[in-house]
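notes to self, project folder thing:

trying the whole complex as one job this time. last attempt i did each chain seperately and stitching them together was a nightmare. two parts in total, labels are on each line so i dont mix them up again. if this works i'll redo the older ones the same way
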Amino acid sequence: MTEKKMIIDGIECPFTDERNVLEVARHNGIDIPSLCYCENLSIYGGCRLCLVENEKGALDAACSMQPRNGLVVYTHSEKVLKSRHTTLQLLMNSHRAECLTCEQSGRCKLQEYAHRYNVVEPRFKDNTFSHERLDVSSPCITRDPSKCILCGLCVRMCSEVQNIGAIDFTKRGKKAIVAPGFGKMLIETGCVGCGQCAAVCPTGALTINRQIPEMWRMLNDPNKRVVVQYAPSVRVGLAEEFGMPANEPVTGKLVTALRRLGVDVVYDTNLSADLTIMEESAEFLEKVKTGAKLPMFTSCCPGWIQHVEKAHPHLMPQVSTCGSPMEMLGALIRKQFKDEDVYSVAIMPCTAKKFEAQRPELEKDGQRLIDLVLTTDELARLIKAAGIDLKNLPDSEPDSPLGDYTGAGVIFGVTGGVTEAVIRRVLDDASPDTLKTIAECGVRGLEGIKAFTVTAGELSIRIAVANGLANADMLIEKVESGEEQFDFIEVMACPNGCIGGGGQPPASNARKAERMDAIFKADEACELKIPQQNPALGYVYDELLKGRAHELLHIHYPAHGHH
Amino acid sequence: MESVDLGFIDSVLEKYGCDKAKIIAIMQDVQEKYRYLPQEALEYIAKKVGMSESKLYGVATFYGNFSLDAKGKYVMKVCRGTACHVRKSSNVLQALYDATGTNEHKPSSDDGLFTLEIVSCLGACGLSPVVMVNDTVHAAMTPEKARALVEQLREEA
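result (full assembly):
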């Protein structure tokens, strides 16, 4: 078969199965601007920035144009440039520009394009941005309608990928606004705080709530012992913000940077990920033994937990009672430093964790387990603000004893990781052959839904792994209709798992695949592979938990129905 | 405000097979009964047809003929089209505002009897100025006739 080619700006551009001319151009190194297009979402064609000119002199949107052999388009003809300029002027007119103080400044696509295409003069006198009030109801996300340019990326993300539809286009014409129904606030909707809307928002209309000043205050307070834990995915998302490759974990530099920021004690959430596996596998095997209702769902992801509570409350009894690794390590830190004035901080790839940390149901001994959750993105800002050159930092190790971990903990960061760790635990064999068999059983990869069977002795376990809540809902439908049967289901709310979390620097699919590689490299770098090998577990169970493991590590949500 | 009869909503949903694609027809039937779309009814419908609340609200607020605010027993459409305008429909509108105790920003009267709507043309220019009350056309209106109409409707109510 001959290679298919189209001609963009006089350059021969080969293509295969790209879904539109925009993708063909980008794959061939030509960046056509666009504000409403995302590779993972349906095509909207609303922003009109990706218009290109064809041979007949007509303008058409590259995002909705089929590539075809011999097709000729121009991306910077006079006609295109003029149209692009006017479109940007119109968009800027409907956007409240406060670029100096905007949360999204430096990452705003509108700002970038205004600069790139030299839109220096405002053309229209009256601004038409929305005057609807700021929505600060969510502990995770802030919605500012005055900055919304109606690209609809968030709407499609929330409905197509997450199947929630918390926000949509409402009203009409110049009153049109992306909002929840009936003038409600985000907190009153099915929103789970995953932050994926903010990850695709090209402007500052949807942003993640940042708590950087609070962190500085604590770091500079001599009376506070600041204890920080960082999640598996943080080590693979942070580097990109400092111009380093995404496919290498930067654990050592991350630990050094935290110490230089003034953090007193640095622990790795991987330790409690190992602990989660110990608890969760035990819970699962107990359920199998007693004939409890299966499938058992995982419980690490706070977005997923909220989704079950809001959309599938009847499934809550089937969700594991294990606290998330963040909460488990939080509980251990409280026990480790029981008489000290500890400020417990978690660096997470996740925005929903900000909500999780506040939940009263998660308190133990009358105390919140985590005082502050910062995202990977916030940590990057902290490091930059401190003038630390991450790239050239030496490596260092987290503190003992709660810094030890195995490869099973680190793979939590990617979809399928929790499941792979559970299988490693259940098979109880750290030989390279067994590990290889597990890695190849179907658990790895970034697909939205994976289903496979694992045999452990006499036990045959039917497993499914879903990422993205729309995929989870699809799976639940199949289970409830009896079409499929599973014993164990892992769900992560964010596409690709925590590596693609709402608190990570926004990334393309290609970038997320690199992050996955980095996670598995971090696993390979671990000498110990299965959680039961973690040398700190003895100390954790004997010295810190002292027989209160179930009480301190498990959570009973109201809808759980457990006692 | 009358409460929503979910039995009635169920019957409407049943009539249209709970079909998302027929959401406009469903809302039209609901509005015919209540003269507006009560929030409670829309939330119930969203759940039943499997649509997000925000999407359903988006459809309801897109079309000018759907109203999310309770309307009076008498919806008075006052034509402000060109023909009516040159025949002084503005005076008729002002007289109706005064007689019903409404204004530009508060289209419904406190007694729940009247809602005033400004429309661009009712297509009856020969009868201008025109006011339509529910389905009845009142032709060649004057401020005096407008006041008398309000009085008459009040008595009938």
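what i see at first glance: The mean pLDDT of chain B is 94.
need to look closer tmrw
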